[in-house]
Amino acid sequence: NGFPTARDQTVPERALQKMRNLLTNLQQEITRACEAKRRRDEEEALVKQQESQVQQGPKVRKESPAPSQGLGRKQNAGQKDKDGPPEGYHHPSSKLKEIFDKIHGLLSGKSVQSGGCSVSVTLHPQGLDFVQYKLAEKFVKQGEEEVASHYEAAFPIAAVASGIWEFHPKVGALILAHLHKKCPYSVPFYPAFKEGMALEDYQRMLGYQVKDSKVEHQENFLRRMSGMIRLYAAIIQLRWPYESQQEAHPHGLNHGWRWLAQILNMEPLPDVTATLLFDFLEVCGNALMKQYQVQFWKMILLIKEDYFPRIEAVTSSGQMGSFIRLQQFLEKCLQSKEIPVPQGFLPPSFWRS
Q1: pLDDT more than 70, % of the chain
Q2: Element (H or E) spanning 327, and its range?
Q3: First to last CA, the chain
Q4: Which residues contact 181 (CB under 8 A, 6 or more apart)?
Q5: Which residues, including other chains, have CB under 8 Å from residue 203's CB and lie 6 or more apart?
């Protein structure tokens, strides 16, 4: 009769569900890769600390536990390190490449295995649009959740996101769209209250989560916004190190410079502006310093001399924590003429390991 049967309708829905499950699995794989990198960094720091204690000589040995409890273990750790990683160990960089290859393959129309099923965007007429949209949404969600809880996770997630953005520009545009919707300060944009607008609608425009007429706590709101700004600040400075297609970053540091300039041309918001300026500069300040050099330090001086008083003027006594943190960070940087490399940054050596 020309109308689609119930079976005809369930086939594309099942295909979309398979794609949804695959993207959820990929999100979990990225999270696990971030955790693996964090554990590896902690283990390397511990080994360095142990080696340093051993090299300090008799004074440290005198205070150390008995050899069977302390130094013996340290020597074993060193021996294990010298002999190479345990069998079955996968370096975090290889895991990230595996995740990237899977996402890139899916977006390129290849079949990808997930949970015993073969998934392809060709299984549904809108399959590619759906996957691009949901994938971008999940990248931003990882900023909102994973990076918000573990700041150093920003760089592994950003490396994959940046690579996908380079090979699949529409995903990058959708990442920006989701990011701007959830965190308008990433534009940057401070939504204004309009006459006749419901308060709950305005709070949602500002980025707050509102459930059953209850607005989330300010601390949780700032934590989520920080996670998304930190992910953005990591994306604009990272390139996917394998098989790069373009000479220029698809959304590079020039966008970070513009973001910073625009923020300084806007009236600051209490708590929010100081928090997000600190997050952005802690993650991206070192890269901006290297790129813009003298101009960057002029911008930092402008923040200190002109913008600090404006932030302080709108900040209540209960909100001074974020302002003081930003102030101390920038004063320390101005003293040393250096913005430190951010925690969790992925140097070229990470990808060669």
Answers
A1: 82
A2: helix 320-336
A3: 61
A4: none
A5: 210, 215
CB atoms near residue 259 (< 10 Å) = 21
104-146 tens-digit pLDDT: 998 999 988 877 778 888 888 888 998 899 999 999 999 999 9
Residue with tokens 């706590």: 217
Nearest Cα neighbor of 284 from 217, 338, 342, 241 is 342
Contact call for residues 172 and 180 (beta carbons, < 8 A): no
Do 133 and 22 form a contact (C-beta atoms < 8 A)?
no
Residues 6+ apart with CB under 8 A from 4: none
- Taking alpha carbons only, the member of 184, 224, 225 closest to residue 206 is 184
What DSSP line would sit under 216-276, residue for residue?
A: PPHHHHHHHHHHHHHHHHHHTT---SSS---SS-TT-HHHHHHHHHHHHTSPPPTTHHHHH
pTM: 0.81
Torsion (CA) 23, 28, 32, 38 in degrees, nearest 10: 100
Q: Which residues contact 284 (CB under 8 A, 6 or more apart)?
A: 233, 234, 236, 237, 253, 256, 342
Contact 50, 77 (CB under 8 A): yes
Distance separating alpha carbons of residues 112 and 275, to the nearest angstrom: 40
How many Å apart are CA 18 and CA 111, to the nearest integer?
A: 12
